[in-house]
């Protein structure tokens, strides 16, 4: 093992540090009309948005907690803080404008450096607000918009109103309603027709306040023939009490466009991560979800693609790693709603210790989607005898000419593989880590390099001393 | 004491004794052949040398350069310079040969191996084996034919350069061309700092890897030893002939 790897092993969860940041405003606990009004006031929103939020609050209050998935009984919604404004500055264009304590956090996470080297633009959210957003000037000149969602709402109101809450309406589910009521932060992205953004845009989400709920809301519009890759990364310090992250991501991929949305969440293991992500994909467009769930206590996340016009395509790649105390309930949803649409789901999960990884997915072919094709492959790897995995694949086909395939495997780390690798000099846990890395390789190789390296380091860390 | 020494080795699996007092010495600088009929315990011996936890050693010892390795894990044995080329190499999906080989080389040498150094080693080995660079980005043994798997074992042998190698039926399932290539690889390793035990059922491989000594195993013991001519005699007369002779002697 290299020196760098050894160092990484000593670091444990390296994002646990608590930042010394004094917020400028903290809402009272619980989600009430008063809190919603305070959020809206602090944002200086138009009246229609406050109305939208209050309507969503009613929907949220009416909808029961979902009981079909993971245990959410540890989540005390009345005890959370729903809005924390970290600083007066919002959406700074340079890191220098940001209060030093917050800036230091992002430096520690390596964000400004990554921005200089490998990204086309960066957004940074701290607790409830985006503190930074910047896109390379050259892209700005081509009409690319990459700003905080609040700025998008104010500066580009027509475009915003045309799509906001149209992809994921508040009625969709209880947590989409919660986000619609309490949303704060997230990105507004618009890529004009034919513009190809080659380097990724990245948003970075940090939660520092304990017993807090972060509700970012992102709206991405990829116009005809345009291309973009958006990456979202998440970390938080470890507190003994539970926190909540409930995002809503709405993506519109117009004709012939290509987009990819990558999430690597490495939340601390006191976080409930309940996210709704959906893309509407139009004629001959292609949308890809790449979803990595490593952290959190409970994650419920099923990125979905609605293929609305002929030739629309999607690919959903998902990796979940569940350790003791974690339940990763993840998967994907594809609705094939037009002729000759096609979709692929590849899901790989690893359960270790008493961790539990569930695949939950839906493939639905609507009547009239002639020649639609979908394929689902989900593979689970169990590290320990007490590890658990479940598969809930739902397939609904209303169209006779459609082809839908489903394949699922469950495997264990095989003693013969371990022995073989050991006879080549690798220690038992190194051998196990290599086998796990191999298991997720088909997805890991699709990640940007830094993320692939990070993922490998994390797996080595998790696998150390895990066998024998 | 520069030798691989097996001393009165008894071993069992699931309560069944397979090795019944094996004695065998392979000095460094020599290549020995281990022959015998199916079920004699040849492959078991190979796996036990490498430290397969499936088997229980009941009695005896294995010494590498005079030092017992019986209590060492398979990876510790490997790092001390022992290599087993598997009869049935295992598939490890998603792990490229290049990535795996570099990790193995680093483990063996106990230090970081730079890309340039690694490539130099691998390139030479590939040329010797007449193998395409493209194989390096294939996943370890996944979907390989029997011949490709064996060639891959020899590639590892050449890159890791162990002090002692045990080749378990590396010739089985190979056509004559592949056999020659494998032999070329092993012969390239021959020299004063390398010892090998070549396990084979047939004498065919020994036309290309000419052994210094031949040992014959039957029913868990070494029953005959001799020069390369012993292999030829076995080929001509068959194992039954030897079995009769052993009976008469007993």
Please give the most extensive interface between any two protein chains, plus how many residues each contributes. Answer: A-B, 27 and 32 residues
Q: Enumerate how many helices of chain A there are, as a single number.
A: 12
Decide which structural class fits the backbone of chain B: alpha/beta
Overall number of strands of chain B: 12
Per CATH, which architecture of chain B?
3-Layer(aba) Sandwich
Q: How many individual domains of chain B?
A: 1
Extract low-pLDDT stretches of chain B. none
Q: What is the global morphology of chain A?
A: globular
How much of the sequence lies in strands of chain B comes to 25-35%
3D architecture notes:
- The complex is a heterodimer of chains A (468) and B (250).
- Chain A has 468 residues and is of the alpha/beta class.
- Chain A has one domain.
- Chain A contains 12 helices and 24 strands.
- Chain A has helices at 3-11, 33-43, 47-62, 100-108, 111-118, 137-141, 149-155, 157-163, 174-182, 415-422, 428-444, 449-463, and strands at 25-26, 84-85, 121-126, 129-135, 145-148, 187-191, 201-206, 213-214, 217-222, 227-235, 243-245, 248-253, 258-265, 271-281, 286-293, 298-301, 304-307, 313-322, 327-336, 342-351, 356-365, 373-382, 388-397, 403-412.
- In chain A, the strands form 3 sheets. In chain A, strands 5, 6, 8, 9, 11, 12, 14, 16, 17, 19, 21 and 23 form a 12-stranded mixed sheet that branches. In chain A, strands 4-3-7-10-13-15-18-20-22-24 form a 10-stranded mixed sheet.
- In chain A, strand 3 and strand 4 (129-135) form a beta hairpin.
- Chain A starts with a helix and ends in a 5-residue tail after the last helix.
- Mean pLDDT of chain A is 89; it is low at 1-13.
- By secondary structure, chain B is an alpha/beta fold.
- Chain B has a single domain (3-88, 161-249), classed as 3-Layer(aba) Sandwich (Rossmann fold).
- Chain B has 8 helices and 12 strands.
- Chain B has helices at 42-50, 74-79, 97-109, 115-128, 146-160, 176-189, 228-237, 239-249; strands at residues 3-13, 16-27, 31-35, 56-64, 67-68, 82-85, 92-96, 139-140, 164-168, 195-200, 213-218, 221-226.
- In chain B, the strands form 3 sheets. Chain B has a 6-stranded mixed sheet with strand order 6-9-10-3-11-12, sandwiched between helices. In chain B, strands 2-1-4-5 form a 4-stranded antiparallel sheet, covered by helices on one side. Chain B has a two-stranded antiparallel ribbon with strand order 7-8.
- In chain B, helix 5 (146-160) runs parallel beside helix 6.
- The longest helix of chain B has 15 residues, at 146-160.
- The A-B interface holds A 1-3, 414-417, 419-428, 430-431, 434-435, 437-442 and B 50-54, 73-75, 77-79, 83-84, 86, 89-95, 100, 103-104, 106-108, 112, 139-140, 156, 160.
């Amino acid at each position: 093992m290299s020196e760098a790897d050894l160092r990484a092993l000593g670091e444990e969860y390296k994002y646990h540090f608590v930042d010394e940041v004094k917020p400028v405003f903290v809402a009272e606990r619980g989600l009430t009309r008063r809190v919603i009004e305070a959020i809206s006031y602090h944002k200086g929103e138009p009246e229609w948005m406050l109305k939208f939020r209050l309507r969503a609050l009613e929907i949220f209050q009416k909808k029961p907690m979902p009981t079909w998935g993971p245990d959410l009984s540890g989540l005390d919604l009345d005890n959370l803080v729903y809005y924390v404004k970290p600083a007066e500055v919002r959406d700074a264009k340079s890191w220098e404008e940001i209060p030093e304590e917050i800036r230091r956090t992002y430096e520690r996470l390596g964000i400004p450096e990554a921005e200089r080297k490998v990204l086309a633009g960066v957004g940074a959210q701290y607790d409830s607000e985006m503190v930074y957003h910047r896109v390379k000037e050259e892209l700005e000149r081509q009409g690319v918009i990459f700003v905080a969602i609040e700025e998008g709402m104010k500066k580009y109101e027509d475009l915003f109103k045309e799509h906001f809450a149209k992809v994921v309406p508040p009625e969709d589910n209880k947590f989409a309603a919660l986000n619609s009521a309490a949303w704060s932060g997230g990105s507004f992205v618009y890529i004009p027709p034919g513009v190809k953004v080659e380097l990724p845009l990245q948003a970075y989400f940090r939660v520092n306040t304990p017993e807090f709920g972060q509700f970012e809301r992102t709206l991405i519009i990829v116009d005809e023939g345009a291309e973009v890759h958006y990456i979202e990364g998440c970390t938080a310090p470890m507190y003994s009490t539970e926190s909540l992250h409930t995002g809503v991501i709405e993506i519109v991929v117009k004709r012939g466009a290509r987009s990819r949305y990558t999430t690597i969440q490495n939340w601390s293991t006191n976080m409930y991560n309940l996210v709704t992500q959906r893309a509407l994909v139009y004629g001959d467009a292609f949308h890809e979800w790449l979803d990595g769930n490593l952290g959190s206590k409970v994650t419920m996340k099923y990125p979905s693609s609605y293929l609305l016009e002929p030739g629309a395509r999607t690919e959903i790649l998902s990796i979940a790693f569940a350790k003791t105390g974690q339940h990763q309930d993840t998967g994907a949803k594809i609705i094939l709603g037009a002729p000759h649409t096609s979709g692929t789901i590849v899901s790989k999960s690893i359960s270790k210790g008493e961790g539990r990884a569930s695949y939950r997915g839906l493939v639905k072919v609507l009547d009239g989607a002639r020649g639609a094709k979908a394929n689902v492959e989900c593979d689970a790897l169990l590290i320990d005898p007490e590890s658990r995995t479940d598969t809930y694949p739902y397939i609904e086909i209303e169209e006779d000419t459609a082809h839908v395939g489903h394949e699922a495997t469950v495997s264990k780390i095989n003693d013969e593989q371990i022995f073989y690798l050991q006879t080549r000099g690798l220690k038992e846990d190194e051998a196990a880590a290599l086998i796990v890395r191999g298991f997720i390789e088909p997805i890991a190789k699709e990640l940007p390099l830094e993320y692939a390296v990070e993922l490998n380091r994390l797996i080595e860390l998790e696998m150390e001393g895990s066998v024998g | 004491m520069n030798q691989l020494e097996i001393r009165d080795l008894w071993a069992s699996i699931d309560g069944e004794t397979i090795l019944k007092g094996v004695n065998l010495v392979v000095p460094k600088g020599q290549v020995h052949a281990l022959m015998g009929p199916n079920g004699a315990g040849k492959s078991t011996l190979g796996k036990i040398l490498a430290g397969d936890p499936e088997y229980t050693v009941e009695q005896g010892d294995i010494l590498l350069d005079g030092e017992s390795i019986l209590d060492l894990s398979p990876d510790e044995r490997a790092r001390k310079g022992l290599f087993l080329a598997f009869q049935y190499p295992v598939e490890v999906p998603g792990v490229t040969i290049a990535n795996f080989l570099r990790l193995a080389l680093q483990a063996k040498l106990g230090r970081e191996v730079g890309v340039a150094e690694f490539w130099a080693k691998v390139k030479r080995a590939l040329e010797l084996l007449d193998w395409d660079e493209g194989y390096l980005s294939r996943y370890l043994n996944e979907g390989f034919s029997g011949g490709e798997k064996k060639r891959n074992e020899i590639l590892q042998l050449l890159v890791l350069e162990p002090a002692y190698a045990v080749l378990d039926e590396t010739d089985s399932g190979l056509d004559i061309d592949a056999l020659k290539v494998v032999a070329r690889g092993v012969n390239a390793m021959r020299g004063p700092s390398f010892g090998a035990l070549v396990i084979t059922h047939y004498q065919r491989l020994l036309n290309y890897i000419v052994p210094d000594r031949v040992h014959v195993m039957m029913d868990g013991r070494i029953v005959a030893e001799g020069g390369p001519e012993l292999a030829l005699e076995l080929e001509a007369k068959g194992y039954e002939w030897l079995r009769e002779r052993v009976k008469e002697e007993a």
